[in-house]
Amino acid sequence: MKIFYDDIIFELQSAGGISKYWSKLIEFFSINKNIHLINLQHKDSCKNVFYPKNKKIGVYQEKYFPLKIRRYLPIFNTHKCDIFHSSYFRTPFFSNKKLKQVVTVHDFMYEFFDTGLRKSIHIWQKRKAMLNADAIICVSEHTKKDLIRLYPEVRKDALFVVPNGVDVEFKVVSQDNYKKDFLLYVGNRMGCKNFKFILNLMKSSKFIQEKEFYVVCVGGGMFTNKELNSFRKLGFENKIKQVLCIDNQELNILYNKAYALLFPSQYEGFGIPALEAQASGCPVIYAKTSSLPEVMGYKELGYTLDSLEEADAKLKLLENSSFRQEIVNKGVDYASKLTWKNSINLTYEVYKKVLKQ
């Protein structure tokens, strides 16, 4: 099986869930003896946090046109491969029945939250890729439902649900000496990620104030001046800390040390940090929106979107040690079933199925 990967996501992101997903496909399929993997990428691809630097793959370099143009251009040479799979909705210029096209749909952020020309171009590109695809992989059942609602013209028999996985580094370690004196937030803080909800929760929750919890933010870029000014106005300049550029082992320790992970997102295509936290034994206080209930191994800590009272009540529940342990056990058990190995095996089955068509 000869597969052509378009690695443009490594340029479009410096990190992020889609980059991690794509690196896992490369990691597993580059050592599969039944697959000959060819990758198209740019010299800047290696700057991505999740770029698979140690994998031996056949690479063709993209040299022409700036990224803002190239991201929308077709691929002119697929090197007589059996399957073409783009990391972000590009399509081959020359299409034939022999070459099978696969698309992965992660979410519909642009459709729900963007506006203007950028949204229109994204929708045009995504629709074109899906209509040309022999198989469309959705990372959750909720993403599949959104796809059918937003793009009813797409073939339903081409849809496959393949959930994301969790890295093996995320696991429970001895927590006896951990104070559990902080709340954790992982990811970017823009738009629908709803980070402002955490600020409002810190301001309104007597429980957080009495416990003297602080918040540790992981990733998402350095705090902007606007963010720092808002922290100062709220009196939180010493209550919100940040950790940048950490590896899985370090993040795993943070999950283990935290009282809970806060996940107030308005919309997620999947929600990898919620799965990582569960695997690490960290309870997740999450908004019951989009795919998050699907990714969680328990319902007890879900709250109605933007309900400060409910979120505060969920935090208080974790003071009960037996309840907390029950939640940890449920989360670890659920996360153990969603591995990257499982995701890759399901993806491989999709590849084999389209080749039989």
Key descriptive features of the protein:
357 residues, alpha/beta, Rossmann fold, 2 domains, 7-stranded parallel β-sheet, 13 strands
Shape: globular
What's the arrangement of strands in the largest beta sheet? 3-2-1-4-5-6-7
Helix/strand-derived category reads: alpha/beta
- Total number of β-strand segments? 13
> What composes the largest sheet?
7 strands, parallel
Q: Please report the distance between the alpha carbons of the first and last residues.
A: 14 Å
Overall mean pLDDT stands at 95
User: Please, how many helices?
Assistant: 15
Instruction: Output the CATH topology of the largest domain.
Output: Rossmann fold
Fraction of residues in helix = 25-40%
Assigned CATH class of the largest domain: Alpha Beta
Domain unit count: 2
Low-confidence stretches: none
The appropriate CATH architecture of the largest domain is 3-Layer(aba) Sandwich
Strand proportion, as a percent range, falls in: 15-25%
| Rg, Å, rounded | 21 Å
Q: CATH homologous superfamily name of the largest domain?
A: Glycogen Phosphorylase B
Element-level helix/strand string:
EHHEEHEEHHEHEEHHEHEHEHEHEHHH
